[in-house]
Amino acid sequence: MIPVRVFSGRKVAVFGLARSGLAAVKALKAGGSEVFAWDDKDGLREAARAAGAAVASWRDWPWDGIAALVLSPGVPLTHPKPHEVVLRARQSGVEIIGDIELFTREVHGVPVIAITGTNGKSTTTALIGHILAGFDVQVGGNIGKPVLELSPPSANTIYVLEVSSYQIDLSPGFKPDVAVLTNLTPDHIDRHGSMENYVSVKMRLLKQTAKTGLNIVGVDDSHCAAIFTSLTSNGGAPCVPVSVGKVLGRGVFVLEGVLYDAQNSHTARVMDLRGAEHLLGAHNWQNAALAYAAAKPYAREMRAIAEAIRSFPGLAHRIEDVGRIGKVRFVNDSKATNADAAERALVCFPDIYWIIGGRPKAGGIASLEPHFGRVRKAYLIGEAAEEFAATLSGKADSEFCGTLEAAVAAAAEDAAKSDAKEPVVLLSPACASFDQFRDFEQRGEAFRSLVAKLQPEAK
């Protein structure tokens, strides 16, 4: 844990007590703050009370004496409308920040690599951490451990942090040494009001990068390409473009699966990414290229970086093999919470028994129609079932299952009876999980458990 001492002896409020909120309570208490906390869930309130916080409704907090409100990233700050606690804090002149901002104010002089974007940021974050394993590398933020649960810095520490758009909104002072923007497609529009606002928040992180640092941008979508163009002319940190499929005169690119580095006066061949077993597909080649560019200022040795990329074990819940029963392969892609993320799994397999659904995102799955030919059958769960059935009608067979348990059983049976050489039961929901699960991780663990129960020896 990183104790937060910047508010020592002062009152700080924490609203929202899931993982990052509870970590903030503990870090603030360890740093000498008087902490007031609230969450609507009884169990979370008890955990905060056990950590030493004064647990009371936000309406009863001593607002005149509170120095800062630490807001959970899940609580609306601006759209669809600010939460009442946000309005009260503004009325009382209390600054509203998040756990990343607490980290920023406490930790100084230590390299920080920040990764954001719509898709690929978790894999890119984990891969950077894997490449930099020779350092005291601390990986967290929006992936794994909350940032304040990471270890305090040592002489050899590098922090590698996945940062969501919600966290950026709450981190005005965050200045990473290296910032990575993977890609941008419509997502979280309900929380940002428009695509323009969403893009603006992501760009803000790169504008905040230390001028002595480095920005790395995947330039294969129009939004990121525009951001790259803007960044290269604003006098901020130097900017490295990354592409899959386009040769770049200056930057890092992948062509036909081969990673090249053209950052210097000549183009060097780094490695053939097709030899990286757990980085299948062009989307993972982008992740690898971004991770290479971010890690190179620290790892430096090209051959060592290439070997680390080859040995990367993959990321849980992202095109993750969780079992094989006979000829049927089971793949957990629970982290695919939107259509663009699901597409990255669909293109990897020819014969798919697709478990899909949950709480739908804007746009649904219409953009995935070019890949419906790979789908032998779809198994629909959650709130999106009827909407997705309508999109699939006449294009791919589908079945209403309702629950993940029913979908796994039906898909496994159909796949085993199929004439496909290696059918794949793929959980790639293209939806948020919140209608039936706490988060995508719980959904993925449930899938893993259901697969294991189908046959005891399944691994």
Can you offer a commentary on this structure?
There is one protein chain. The protein has 459 residues and is an alpha/beta fold. The protein has three domains: 11-97, Rossmann fold (3-Layer(aba) Sandwich); 102-310, UDP-N-acetylmuramoyl-L-alanine:D-glutamate ligase (3-Layer(aba) Sandwich), CATH 3.40.1190.10; 320-454, Alpha-Beta Complex (Protein-Tyrosine Phosphatase, Chain A). It has helices spanning 19-30, 42-50, 84-91, 99-106, 121-131, 165-169, 189-192, 195-208, 222-231, 281-299, 302-310, 339-346, 385-392, 404-417, 440-454; strands at residues 11-15, 34-38, 54-55, 66-71, 95-97, 112-116, 136-141, 157-162, 178-181, 214-218, 239-244, 252-255, 258-261, 268-272, 320-325, 328-332, 352-357, 359-360, 375-381, 398-402, 424-427, 431-432. The longest helix has 19 residues, at 281-299. The protein is globular and about 70 Å long. The model has no long low-confidence stretch (mean pLDDT 94).
